[in-house]
Amino acid sequence: MQQFSAPRTSVGDLDAVQAARIILASADVALILDSAGVVRDVAIGKGDLGLGPPGAWMGRAWTDTVTEDSQPKVETLVRDALADVPTGWRQVSYPIPDGADVPVLFAATRLGGGDRVLAVGRDLRSVAGMQQRLLLAQQTMERDYNRLHHLETRYRLLFKLSSEAVLFVDSASRKIVEANTAAQALFGDGGKALVGRVFPHGIETEDADSIETLLASVRAIGRGEDVTARLGPARREVVVSAALFRIERNVQFLVRLSPRVSDTDGTLITHARARLLDVVDNAPDGIVVTDMDGIILSANTAFLDFVQVATEAQVRGRPLGRFIGRPGVDVTPLISNLRELETVRQFTTAIHGDIGASTTVEISAVAVPHADRPCLGFVMRAVTDRDGADATSLNAVTVPRSVEQLTELVGRVSLKEIIRETNDMIEKLCIQAALELTGDNRASAAEMLGLSRQSLYVKLRRYNLGDLSSAADSA
Question: Under CATH, which number does the domain 7-123 receive?
Answer without folding.
Answer: 3.30.450.20
